[in-house]
Amino acid sequence: MSVVKTISEEALAGLVRDLVASGTRVLAPAQSSDGAVDYQAIQELGEAVLNGAMPRRSLRAALQPPTEPLFAWKRDARGLKIEPMRDPATPQVIVGARPCDAAGIEVLDKVMDWDYKDAPWFARREATTVISLACREPQPSCFCGSLGLGPSSGQGADLLLHRVDSDYLVEVLTPKGEALVAAHSARFQDTPGAEAPKPAGAADADGMLAGLAAAPQPWVKAVDEWLGTHFADELWQQISLRCLGCGGCTSVCPTCHCFDIVDEPEGTQRGLRRRNWDTCQASLFTLHASGHNPRNDQSARCRQRILHKFHIYPKRFGEVLCTGCGRCVRTCPAGVSLPEVLRDIAEKALAPEPVSGGSA
Prior knowledge:
Blueprint: E1 3-8, H1 9-21, E2 25-31, E3 37-41, H2 60-63, E4 67-76, E5 79-84, E6 92-97, H3 99-112, H4 119-126, E7 128-133, E8 159-164, E9 167-172, H5 175-183, E10 189-190, H6 219-229, H7 235-240, H8 248-252, E11 259-266, E12 270-277, H9 298-317, H10 327-331, H11 338-350
Parallel strand pairs: 2-6, 6-7, 7-8
Antiparallel strand pairs: 1-9, 1-10, 2-3, 4-5, 4-12, 8-9, 11-12
């Protein structure tokens, strides 16, 4: 069982001040200039919106910025010189992370350490401590519970806060969490015999996926198997009739991670190599230099997104590439709902096999 401590609202505010004073970057859900809530750097806890709306975007940008220079290059009479651009990762603490966002970071660790270790990702990962806050009111589009997580999941978090009246119970989940508590021990109180609250009711997209977990075959496995044998199914065309290919779903997703690498010359003798977020929903994403595009229509791109999350990624890493945050549902201007798509597939996959008629 994890160690449980207590921290008051006042002590949590003091912890934020301590961290900022030490040069640590503190991120928390905070209101942006347009009124939306996003993960932003804060100086005081009062700037944070801990129990409000889910942040518009996920935590991905805290570990993989939308754009970042990888190195600079310069050519002179002696040849080509490479100048690394990576500064040492700044220590940062994320306060009030949504459990689905913290879980997304841990899911992405696997692909970032697959055939090539992504050095910028893991430099920031090592420098980051995640303090999650259990959700008290999941939104109707959330479906984390259907994926084995939930509003009080601790996956990917170092500390997990549970709001209890005016204080927080603190679950210490990792050595990194233990180190933060030890370094600021005056801010935390021992709670002998205390236990973390039982998990909150599983968020489930307003019931759209309800009942599937009790089906004879687990629905996630059934979806995986159906996707592996229905590459050319008419469902993909049906979905694509609504999809605009804007990539909004992938830009807010905690687990989407595609990027492009481009060279930006500055004249003929110097330039930058830069990494930028990209999306499999863009028509140019798979365009070859020859002009051939293996996903030359939106139905193929819609299919790729679903296959990657619920068939391809599970085959390689043993878990789905989704944490059920529901942001894609709220962001899609065409009203495409991932839980609805998954339910359609699950119902197809779990439907009884048709009985072949015999001769009279």
